[in-house]
Amino acid sequence: MKEFGGKALFLDRNDINTDEIIPAKYLTENTKMALQPYILEDLKLGGFDPRKDIEGKGVIITRANFGCGSSREHAVWVFEVNDINVVIAESFARIFRQNMYNCGMLAIELPKKDIENLFSLGDAVTISVDLDACTITARGSKKVAIPFKLNEFDKKLVEAGGWLTYADKNY
Amino acid sequence: MGKTIAEKIFAAHLRDTPTPENVILDIDVVMCHEITTPIAITDLESRGMDRVFDTAKIKAVIDHVTPAKDSKTAMQGKIIRDWARRHKIQDFFDIGANGVCHALFPEKGFVRPGHTVIMGDSHTCTHGAFGAFAAGIGTTDLEVGILKGVCSFRTPETMKITITGALQDGVSAKDVILFIIKKLTVNGATDKIMEFSGPVVETMSMEARMTLCNMAIEAGGTCGICLPDRVTAKYLWPFIKDQYESIDLAVKDFAKWHSDPDATYVQEMILDVSALAPQATFGYKPDEVKDVTEMEGTPVDQVYIGSCTNGRIEDLRSAARILKGKKIAATVRGILSPATPKVYAQALEEGLIAIFMEAGFCVTNPTCGACLGMSNGVLADGEICASTTNRNFNGRMGKGGIVHLMSPLTAAATAVQGHITDPRKLL
Lengths: 171, 427
Ligand code: SF4
Prior knowledge:
heterodimer, A: 7-stranded mixed β-sheet, 7 strands, 22% strand
């Protein structure tokens, strides 16, 4: 199974929607790779510059209701092709969360206080995820370990490498 | 213990329970459009899995950008068209027969009470108006749906929304749902099914119920759902008349799906709408909603009437009621996109199209059009659109554009005055 983790990109806002993650006008692309330059292009967040801020990041840490709006899986793929395989949030919109697990990626929900804690570690934070122990280790201004809950079925999807492989085997 | 309508539908379609929290359902209808399906098709092809589980249960349409606007959208159309031909999918709708998926498929009678429906489109929740469980899904779920006819869901929790009182003239289902989203917020219904019932819903037409269910996703809801009744049976009658001896018998049969009186809900909300005023959004989230009276005077550059929320015949009739014999403001561009060819034809026959055109509206072919800023009617940076659609997200109708969501009545009144206007003044 692949390793999950990397440098954290903090998006300090609730309700970031899939139109902000990848605008509809790019949905005419027929490959995932073609989406790469347009990540978070329409994000409404003061001081955020997608081109500079995404460089080298592997994990997104954000607030509540991340990925709301459209069902476009492009919102997951645009992270995947930018080497971001984990999103940690207070909560997710259902379709986005499902799309992440369906692609074998992680959408981890943490209580508000844990998210606050992660935000307080400064700008330079590195995250590693231990899937079997269900623990996130964050290294920033200090090192913290945070346990998380993972739905058993979602875990199976990640282990299988996604829903298509799992469904093909089981149904 | 009693069951909700959603629990009954889930029980009737249960294929597997991989964990107590997750279920795999058999799907009755897999709907496809040209934005999210081509990439599913090409991925299945590349994996050597270019198969479909049941040609009769797959419905496909080209609706978002039609006619194609450039080589890329032409290719998306071509991929889904070739696929539909290759697999002999009978219910495929192309130019001349196409319209907005969530308006077209119900019109064809594809969705029935008790059905499970999926589509790679978040507004699939619209079909819950028929007493079906209908959910938007991503491309991978769509691939599995096409290939295997199954989909995974969390075990459902239902929120019961009882709508009581009586709507004033000039206030419609759109205002009701905008007000509900305001109360619930954009994630107030996440992972929940929104069951709409009560006297107001019972008297609503199927068109109005579709408007209500269409925006369930804007509160995060998995599906909006109404209890199938006589209104449902009458709407579906042309498609079910061989199945039932009378409408009465269909109504009786539909009742088997109704939630039991002792069903369990995670949340209940009772809403008396008698004093509800027309609503509109401000800002960039669909829960940023105010009474139209509080936003009166906000100038607009464009008025868009159409979409899966409000592009149906009743919506055109209500807008035409305001526009009849009037001209839209010189500063406003009015665009009407009837949602389906049938709506278009009926609007022509009823003289509605003439009313729109005489008022100064441009009438397009049936399409999603301006709704998602990738086809026609795109806004310029800083422009404002009054729209009967369902999303006011930043950039939704064009980069830098601002969208105010409202009912067709309010949009028509706004077009006439050139600024956001309470339609009750013009009735
Ligand atoms: S009309 Fe708008 S919201 Fe409805 S399906 Fe089309 S693009 Fe989506």
